[in-house]
User: What shape does this take?
Amino acid sequence: MSSLLLWRHAATPYNKDRRLQGSLDIPLDDAGRAQASRAARALVERYGGEMRVHSSPLARALGTAQALTDLAGGEVNVDARLTQRSYGVWEGMTWEEIRAQYPAEYARRMRYEDPDIEGWDNAESVAARVSASLREIADGDRTVVMVSHGSAISLGLLALVGLTGTARVFARLRHAHWVDMRAAADGTWQVHGFNLGADWS
Assistant: This one.
């Protein structure tokens, strides 16, 4: 059974500052590119080089995906459905700034609920588009790698296994780490590994 790998992009300077990116197109820096390259080597070592790579169009995901195709060959297939959710007016802010300026909505977010702020992509719509992409690109004969973002992966994963966006079953997926998913004979999806990365062994 081949794997569908949900790979979170490597860290950017915004991630290190705990600053929300969302739809902002923040590229990887040198440290992020090195992190992506280490994870790409681990992916090839574990799954071999025969894989298809799909990516969000945002630069931090594309840079991560490129590290894998540079090593394993092939090309990056860009899919806009894999992009990060918009964080609306919170984009560019740190969590500390959000907690100070939007205390009630911050509390909602900490409960995994959608805050009532301008421009926020709700969980249901993000889960629908990401899970639709995953079901479409999954290939039972070959490993498929999907490079995306923390919220997008979490919501797509929950939708694939039949849970809502407020479920707290899984931990936070770390940067440049991935989820190994496989389809069972009855068509349901199973998680075979979570937070796998260059340090997986």
